[in-house]
Design brief:
32% helix, 2 domains, Udp-n-acetylmuramoylalanyl-d-glutamate--2,6- Diaminopimelate Ligase, Chain: A, domain 1, globular
Length: 302
């Protein structure tokens, strides 16, 4: 509330509306740059509804929606889509139906920036590169006309084990931890990164002569074949987990959106922002994992 300069009475500030926020987000992450199979943009919400609090998360799980609702959020921004594949019912008998219902009942808009945030500059891959210690980044490859993945060099070589430890200290902790393929004492400097699932880009990683590839969701056969092609040498592999490799992007989009909305005026500056720390990685614990301190550092069987 503020006083009218004319009457001295109380004036109600006009809140920012969803349409204005979506316009900014689509400037950051144009929907047209998403992969053809992806589903991005607004999932629930009215473009004319007010936005006073924005909540950020990797996944639109029921727990995340409940957290956003309890916080009083008007908009939930997630990296992963809720409705990536077609559904024929949003009844609460299914998890997706219950999530859609919870969003609508709580009047929470859901906006997704997925592969369009992966390829954006800056985007998901830039944050993962920075977590590795990279500063000057370039495109790893081009997919459907957009830049996918990043490539860069560390100021100086470090060991593969030290790189894994660095990532462990900068990424959120998950039950799966960080999996590494290669000798812990192997020197690495040139690093390729891709947030999320990345075993489709092994050929591109080899082509750019990266020492190590940091990504996630590496399946047994593609990873094994990639290591066989390397004859035990580079590129070594670091699987840091899907959720963890994409989490750092949340703070990046939060800070960018907060700054951009503030430039709109008082209504934008009054919008609150909160990054969820709920771990939505699906795994909860491991048994019998081999730690770096338990292996022979000259052994390439990690």
């Amino acid at each position: 509330m503020e006083l009218s300069p004319v009457t001295g009475g109380m004036l109600m500030k006009t809140p920012l509306v969803l349409r204005e926020v979506v316009e900014v987000l689509e400037g950051f992450y144009p929907p047209a740059t998403a992969q053809s199979w992806d589903r991005v943009g607004l999932t629930t919400g009215d473009l004319d509804q007010p936005v006073r609090l924005v909540h950020y998360a990797v996944d639109p799980t029921l727990a995340v929606v409940e957290e956003a609702r309890d916080a009083g959020a008007d908009l939930l921004i997630t990296h992963h889509p809720l409705l990536l594949r077609g559904v024929n019912s949003v009844a609460t008998t299914t998890a997706k139906g219950a999530t859609v219902t919870a969003l609508v009942v709580a009047d929470i808009a859901l906006y997704t920036a997925h592969t369009n945030a992966d390829v954006a500059w800056p985007g998901v891959c830039d944050e993962l590169g920075r977590a590795c210690g990279l500063t000057d980044l370039e495109t790893l490859t081009v997919s459907e006309g957009a830049d996918l993945g990043r490539l860069g060099d560390l100021p100086e070589s470090i060991s593969l084990g030290d790189l894994a430890r660095r990532l462990s200290s900068r990424l959120p902790a998950t039950a799966g931890g960080i999996r590494v393929s290669g000798p812990a004492d192997a020197p690495v400097r040139r690093i390729a990164v891709l947030g999320g699932a990345g075993d489709s880009l092994f050929e591109e990683v080899r082509r750019c002569e990266a020492d190590v590839y940091v990504t996630s969701d590496l399946r047994h056969h593609p990873a094994l074949e990639a290591r066989e092609e390397g004859r035990g040498g580079p590129p070594y592999l670091i699987d840091a987990g899907h959720y963890a490799t994409e989490f750092l992007w949340l703070e990046n989009v939060r800070s960018r959106l907060e700054k951009a909305l503030g430039e709109i005026g008082p209504a934008g500056a009054s919008v609150g922002h909160h990054v969820s720390t709920l771990v939505t990685d699906p795994w909860t614990f491991t048994v019998g994992a081999v730690d770096i301190d338990d292996i022979d550092h000259t052994d390439d069987s990690a």
